[in-house]
Amino acid sequence: MVDDNELNRLRDIAAPAPGESAKARAFEAALRAYDEENISAVTQGSVGGLRLTERAQKLWSEIMQKKLIATPALAGLVALPIAGYATFHLLREQPAKFGGDEKITETLADKPATLKPAEPKQAPTELAKDKKADADVESRDATGVLVAPASPPKSEAAQAGGTAQQTANERAVVAEPAPPAPTGEFALNSAAPSTSRLARAPAAESKLMAPQPTIAPADQIAPQEENRNRVQDFKTNPVHAALEDPVSTFSIDVDTASYSFVRRSLKEGAVPQADTVRVEEMINYFPYDWKGPDSASTPFNSTVSVMPTPWNGHTKLMHVAIKGFDIKPTEQPKANLVFLIDVSGSMDEPDKLPLLKSAFRLLVSKLRADDTISIVTYAGEAGTVLMPTRAAEKDKILNAIDNLQPGGSTAGEAGIKEAYKLAQQSFVKDGVNRVMLATDGDFNVGQSDDDDLKRLIEQERKSGVFLSVFGFGHDNLNDQMMQTIAQNGNGTAAYIDTLAEAEKVLVEDASSTLFPIAKDVKIQVEFNPNKVSEYRLIGYETRALNREDFNNDRVDAGDIGSGHSVTAIYEITPKGSGGDQIDPLRYGQATVNNGGVANADEYAFVKIRYKLPNEDVSKLITTPVTSANEVASFDQASTDQRFSVAVAAFGQKLRDEDATAKFGYDKIMEIATAARGADPFGYRSEFLSLVRLASALGGNR
Hints:
VWA domain-containing protein; 16 strands; 5-stranded antiparallel beta sheet; Uncharacterised_YfbK_N; 3 domains; VWF_A; single chain; membrane; transmembrane
């Protein structure tokens, strides 16, 4: 079949008076077309006489076969009218395809394509062919110059389909250097205005088309899900030399959001991002049977144990366990709760507002008849959906929840202010006053900067209203903002990814979620350099405090709810064990006047400061750690202690920390399986499945 590429380019060019160079090129193109007409196989799908361009091709063929053109000059004169003829018929018979700003394209076989506002859906193979062809054409020099190959393209008739043949030929053309761009009469001014689409579009070698953005090959254009979650970046706690830096201070943390987020990632087949793994939140996700206080006058009890480290034979673990006083249901104070619910457009996902509504329905069923519930929503602006209503009016409350609909932007700042205002209006003295914020954290109206929100929450917490934050969704979750609000608002944060998790947080753990027994709880540990050469705190990186903050009652810290259990674990290097990572000081320890160090037999001294919920002056609890707190082997530690250590190892493994680099998932499984113990809700069995998933996914082996 005649190669009509050259004719197509001629068709796009307004016919000027021929010059000698143009005549020569036209004659050469005509001869090549004639040769290919007689020696090339017919390409797939190119049936003669069915397309407009065939008329010009046929006419040209007949002229050449009859040898009516004997000189290059005549060839140039004849070529231009033929191009005009083809253009005339194309415009006359298909005018709709050239109107307005629609793009003009042809297939690689030069069949005019039907133009549509959007690309039709195609089979994957066809889509790949089309987009690959587009990329090939767009990569060429679109100067309007007729670029002819040095020799006729080699026949590849054995290949399946004419598209592959044509694409190969075009690539051969591109590889050749283009002749100089025409000047004078043949020059194309792309900037000149024209009502003709043909005059406006620079000619391509095998297509009639306007310049379009380059399209990547089909194997590179698969849509990639963008990770829009916002999480706080932080560095793993370093190893400290006890001689140089013997004091560690941090705020207590009872949040559990990280564990739920990690679980969701693993169940979706992805190793979680390292900064979504906060090891302390993973450890504290599980209930533990630590020994609690005997009365509410002392809100919690601490238990400290020292045991060998499973992943390092040269170190030991100092395990600090805290258990809050568990308020009996009959002694629970009256609750004044304000549900602050995000109903913005970003919440219009099955795992966001619909799940949120189901979760809050569970909570309503848990409340007592004389508790009070209010509902504030926010999207483009904040509004009160339900004024303070007794929980006894359950149908009214549930109806208000069911009628929530998503839409609009996210005026989180206005919603927070409105919720605190409503909570203060219904304030219950000696009761529980709490705003319960449910959101994906995507604040974009009003104050949306984390520091601005922090200052807002710090101001509002002075009213005595506590805060709980519940995160929903996973493709636009602002975990960083939620952590900022919770940590600075006398509150806690949880992430709800399933209805089962909603039941855990709002039903099974309702007492610890709703009823605080202590606020601004801080821990400070001083290590004895005569017994401990090095130490590091596992987790709590985002809860670190300055040493002087411990005795400053103005510094906010974490809160403990009724029955809450909190665990902190230090990895310590006993002096002389040979496991030191830091070189000793050249000049050693300074001498002391008394000839020795007081309490030289202690590993460390643990101090805990806290305030009662309605007080502003802190109290102090202290615990010395001696050899009496030590167990000889890891297996002699309690079941709960060993399981919490397995969780700590898992969290460090997911974060790819050096300490557990050589400690495999099989070892974690072994410890957790042996320490599973009583598991009435299946939390520990689920943990074992997550370890297996992480191992299968190859996360930080």
